[in-house]
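Students often ask why inverse folding is considered easier than folding. One informal answer: many sequences map to the same fold, so there is more than one right answer. In these notes we will look at a single instance of the problem. The structure comes first.
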């Protein structure tokens, strides 16, 4: 039910004012910020001043002082005194930069994900932000795509749980509450499946696969009460998402009951034209408004053509009215009509020192996201007093915040600095620490100082190789066709192995890289992602055993880029490969590479050892699967016990396994716990031939284990 004051506001608005309310521009267009640091293609829009007075929202206008100034100016000129909505890309923290979301997915810690969002919300709110364009929950299977860093990975169940946790963390129970901001889930829908992993490339998945894999996490956001949904750049079944009525009104609003605001991604209304789905701006505006896009971001076809479309009878003004009402209702839910500045606070926003509580939280979130992929010859944990060699472009680098790390007020803690907090500086020797430039600058390798590094470090007790990719080569516009470390980084690792000392390779990346070429040369291998402000401290905590690594991969790591897409929840095919018969030709296989990834979804090691026993499935009115897990080591550790199921045969083919639950156990030395999962029919439902959610009786494999490849399994009939 629309509040009377909102209805009255709408009734008094001219059509042009309504269309301006549905338009979002960057601060540049108010003359506020001449550094047009945009997140998309820039163009002059030649907007008349009286229109600017009625624009509804601001893209990436941040900073308490800026927001207060712009909001004040706006309210002085806005005829109806409707406050501006300030929206920004707070993807993994605002001032305290937190681990990239792909790392947070690997923490498998939902409380941590909620905490992550709460911290980002508090800092963003103080900076005057009302809406964050997060969580990004596009399911991903192709690490060539730079934006895998922004999502929680390849699994619908994990993505859904992480997404709803973040929505809760951002929004709380009441948007008016201090330190809360509205969340905007994106990019609806299927943006994570570009062909070839090439940014903005064609997405073409069947409706069944879209529903089974790509939609669940967006729906989890809607069910968690997300305030806003952003439409994707790509087509969905050959119609751009930003003009796709079946997607936006059919699924999002009618099927799922979403009644919040929808916003087009940057310029994507206009991009219906190059897509070939609209002949001009007028048709683009007509299609997007008809499809259900409320706010047009960084293009002005609503403004330029909306009135004519109504006059020509091509567009029902009621569609514009309902969109304006949703925008006004969001402003009201945030309390902006009472307090248009909400939590903007220059004192907090411009504090000399970052918030100590948030800094500590960032350190813990980082440590829990690191994934230990290999640890042989007791290479880790390090011991204080060891002579430590440290080499590679990320040895002393502070450029480890990760992509989309907006404000960068405080430089990150480097790996060197983190280690030097643990052991005396004279015990640390560095070499070949020159940083890796960005491919955008045409830099594809580091200087070859390998021999110097070998000679300088060969007498150390242990050697750390800090390698990876430049953070600017990840995120939007960061697609790559090659995922190996650069030649000189690989050469460094192999030469360091010649020292005969243990080599610990630490990989800084925003995606799964191709690590097979350096795996044998590494006694230990740590996936460090980009962990944000506290990166070096988080890593040092793990390296010295002050935090026992508990991360589990949220995305498969391929043997080679030629294997992509490789993901755990695949269909079996009609000619499955049987590893018992490796010489058989006519099965699904490569001649030169395994089908399985190098490291699978859910994989990760610990300094503890965990023994699984007593797997049992009890059938009856309710079905339970249980297993006993014992920490057989002398140090407390965290284990993520994972539940998967397989529907063996159905009216449509089903994945060989699907995650349906996980439980993170913290087990003291030699402690044993029994974990039990209830298997409900809801878990077993799927989208049948006609895209309806159904259950079909049949045989099911119930599986529990430590990762998607190491599972106990039992087949049962469920009627
Ligand atoms: C960008 C991104 C989107 C972001 C938006 C606003 O192009 O695709 O994720 O939120 O523009 O910056």
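Output (designed amino acids):
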């Amino acid at each position: 039910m629309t509040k009377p004051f909102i209805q009255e506001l709408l009734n008094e608005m001219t059509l042009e004012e309504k269309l301006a309310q549905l338009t979002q521009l960057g601060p540049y267009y108010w003359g506020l910020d001449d550094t047009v640091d945009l997140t998309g293609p820039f163009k002059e829009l030649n907007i008349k001043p009286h229109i600017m007075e009625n624009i509804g929202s601001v893209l990436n206008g941040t900073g308490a002082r800026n927001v207060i100034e712009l909001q004040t100016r706006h309210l002085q000129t806005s005829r109806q005194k409707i406050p501006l909505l300030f929206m920004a890309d707070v993807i993994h923290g605002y001032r305290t930069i937190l681990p990239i979301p792909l790392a947070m997915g690997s923490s498998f810690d939902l409380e941590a994900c909620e905490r992550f969002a709460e911290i980002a919300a508090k800092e963003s709110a103080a900076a005057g932000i009302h809406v964050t364009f997060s969580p990004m929950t596009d399911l991903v299977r192709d690490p060539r795509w730079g934006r895998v860093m922004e999502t929680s990975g390849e699994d619908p169940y994990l993505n859904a749980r992480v997404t709803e946790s973040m929505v809760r963390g951002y929004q709380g129970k009441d948007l008016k509450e201090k330190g809360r901001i509205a969340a905007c889930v994106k990019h609806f829908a299927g943006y994570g499946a570009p062909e070839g992993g090439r940014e903005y490339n064609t997405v073409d998945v069947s409706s069944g696969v879209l529903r089974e894999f790509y939609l669940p996490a967006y729906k989890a956001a809607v069910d968690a009460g997300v305030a806003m949904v952003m439409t994707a750049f790509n087509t969905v079944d050959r119609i751009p998402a930003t003009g796709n009525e079946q997607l936006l009104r059919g699924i999002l609003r009618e099927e799922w009951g979403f009644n919040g605001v929808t916003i087009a991604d940057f310029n994507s209304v206009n991009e219906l034209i190059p897509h070939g789905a609209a002949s001009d701006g007028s048709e683009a505006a007509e299609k997007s408004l008809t499809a259900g896009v409320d706010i047009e971001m960084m293009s002005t076809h609503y403004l330029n053509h909306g009135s004519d479309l109504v006059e020509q009878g091509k567009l029902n003004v009621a569609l514009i009215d309902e969109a304006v009402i949703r925008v006004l209702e969001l402003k009201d839910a945030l309390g902006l009509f009472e307090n248009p500045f909400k939590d903007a606070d220059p004192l907090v926003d411009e504090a000399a020192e970052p918030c100590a509580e948030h800094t500590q939280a960032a350190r813990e979130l980082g440590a829990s996201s690191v994934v230990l992929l290999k640890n042989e010859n007791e290479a880790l944990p390090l011991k204080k007093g060891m002579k430590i060699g440290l080499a590679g472009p990320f040895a002393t680098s502070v450029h480890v915040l990760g992509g989309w790390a907006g404000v960068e007020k405080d430089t990150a803690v480097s790996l060197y600095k983190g280690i030097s907090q643990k052991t005396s500086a004279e015990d640390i020797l560095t070499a070949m620490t020159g940083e890796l430039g960005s491919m955008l600058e045409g830099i594809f390798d580091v200087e070859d100082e390998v021999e110097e590094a070998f000679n300088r470090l060969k007498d150390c007790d242990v050697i750390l190789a800090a390698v990876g990719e430049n953070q600017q080569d990840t995120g939007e516009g960061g697609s790559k066709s090659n995922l190996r470390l650069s030649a000189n980084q690989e050469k460094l690792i192999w030469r360091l192995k010649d020292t005969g000392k243990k080599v610990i390779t630490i990989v800084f990346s925003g995606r799964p890289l191709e690590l097979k070429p350096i795996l044998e040369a590494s006694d230990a291998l740590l996936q460090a992602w980009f962990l944000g402000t506290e990166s070096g401290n988080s890593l040092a905590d793990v390296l010295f055993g002050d935090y026992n690594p508990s991360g589990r991969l949220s995305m498969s790591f391929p043997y080679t880029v030629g294997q992509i897409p490789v993901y755990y929840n695949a269909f079996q095919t009609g000619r499955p490969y049987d590893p018992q018969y490796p010489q058989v030709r006519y099965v699904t296989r490569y001649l030169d590479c395994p089908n399985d990834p190098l490291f699978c979804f859910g994989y990760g090691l610990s300094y503890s050892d965990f023994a699984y026993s007593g797997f049992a499935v009890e059938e009856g009115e309710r079905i339970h699967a249980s297993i006993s897990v014992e920490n057989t080591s002398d140090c407390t550790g965290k284990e993520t016990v994972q539940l998967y199921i397989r529907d063996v045969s159905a009216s449509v083919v089903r994945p060989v396994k699907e995650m349906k639950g996980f439980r993170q156990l913290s087990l003291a030395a030699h402690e044993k716990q029994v974990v039990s999962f209830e298997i409900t029919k809801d878990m077993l439902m799927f989208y049948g031939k006609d895209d309806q959610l159904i259950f079909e009786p049949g045989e099911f494999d119930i599986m529990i284990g430590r990762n998607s490849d190491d599972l106990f399994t039992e087949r049962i009939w469920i009627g």
